[in-house]
Amino acid sequence: MLAFISRRMAAAAAMLLVIGTIIFSLLIIVPGDPAELLLSTGGGSASAEAIANLRANMGLDQPVLTQYVTFLYNTARLDFGTSIVDNGSISSVIALRLPRTLEIIVAGTIFALLLAIPAGTAAGLRAGGKFDIATSAINALLTSVPGFVLGTLFIYFFAQILGWLPAGGYVAFATNPAQHLQMLILPSLTVGLHLATIVFRMTRASVLEMRGHDWVRTAVAKGLRRKRVVRRHILYNALGPIITVVGLQLGILLGSTVLVEFIYNWPGLSGLLVSAVEQRDYPTVRAVILTVSTIFIGINLVIDILSSLLDPRIRLQ
Amino acid sequence: MTAAPLLDVQNLEKSYSIGRSGLFSKRSLKVLHDVSFSVAPGEVLGLVGESGSGKSTIGRAILRLIDSQSDVMRFGGQDLNSISPARMRILRKEMQIIFQDPYASLDPRKTIRAVLSEALDAHGLHQGAARGPRLIELVTLVGLDPSFLDRRPHEFSGGQRQRIGIARALAVEPSFIVCDEAVSALDVSIQAQVLNLLADLRAKTGVSLLFISHDLSVVRYISDRVMVLYLGRVMEVGPADRVHFSPKHPYTAALVSAEPSLHRENRRIRLTGEIPSPLALPSGCIFRSRCPYAQPACAETVPPLQTVGDQHQSACLRTDIL
Question: Across the interface, which of A213, A222, A237 has its CB nearest the CB of B118?
Fold first, then answer.
């Protein structure tokens, strides 16, 4: 087990290095001089002096190899440099905004799992039954509605008509916990509902597959209670693919909550990325991408370890 | 039989629906027709027939692992047709099954210890300190090493898995076990070992067996009585040696003659043609399309089971031949 984990961790570290290298290379490969490009936003070109200043500031006047080593060294220390736009520390902006995005994703995921796993199991156990047909139809409908439509509908319904929840905005938890949680509900629901449709389908298919195995019949023949057959045998075996899908979706969510954050005016990481791209704030873009990829790899590592705990056969492969 | 049977089944039928023929009418395929039999306490009833003859279906129907229709299905005085799921679950301590496919019938995520413990836990047996010795006793009983307890199914060979399945069925000390091709997946030397194990157990504990197999010699070795099945119908039933040495049904005779033997005096009876599709069965006797002795009369009536000797019945009109 220890060998398996260290093997996976080594692979994850190698992957991080590759990603870091690619992100670093982008700046080199991109045609034109980044500093010149940055300063020429107004249409006219900047003075040679200003460009040289910025180049020195960004370290672009150094040899590529030196730049690369400096970049890796700083990244390892979680020092992403300063933003070109406001000269603020990128690390502290990320440290401020990342938890907000994670909050939405974690709350949405918990909601999705609580909703989709029981529903998917029930639908899979009685595939073709009334519950299955009804939930699968609702599921298909929800899958095909994009998050921003759902978000807008939620605002209209819960905020405008019913007036139960605020339409958007953000208040720090420390300032007003109740209001913070209230504001968290709609964004999490929007993110979670979409994830739930994916988890539902996976759970249903997986349970349906496991249900037909001979060892399920063995479990029944042993004289086990139905609840135990479903939980300890069917669901336990069905969990593998579900965990994998949730892991992948979590990674994707990290980069794609942008619309939800935008709709609900939630100042998270995605918003930072969008404004950084708009303002050609290269160091910030680089830092956000690195952060997201690192978390993605981290999630995958956790999923791998979880799967191997669930199914020891994986360790051998 | 004089003693009250442990298991009594009358007119067992099973149909599967197989899609629709018209817009509203569902087509169904009957795989068991009027199968009646009983098993006495301590008795071994062998069930033989080719693939698709309904052998496994009977075993599973008795254990209520699949739904079926029957006039009577009683086990140890309990009516299995009207039993509640909760009572049935408790009754499973007495009625166990050894499944055919050792690869598919064990949960891949569970260690052998968990597989066996779960069976014991389900019926509150050998709790606490008695558990460990019991598990060791069980695996030793089926000829496995106690160190195997903490391994999972994928670490075993087919024969070892089958023995785990047997240990699982024996764990709760049932009074009746359905052995659904329990030894077919094993090589011959282990087959003999497992058969002897089952025979020993029966002598020791008085367990009844419904021994399902396509291998006539295996069935004859372990069974008191043998029932021969063809396309879901009983062709012949009687004491094992009688059915084997003086079969009264042409189908049984053909099966027996097909069995390899070192010293055979009579020639092999070759059946011609394919086994008919269950969707288009011949009229009258279902075996007539392949029967060497078929007459026009065989197409007209379904031959009933007639007594042809002591406890020996056969469903053939041509009692004059055999």
Answer: A222
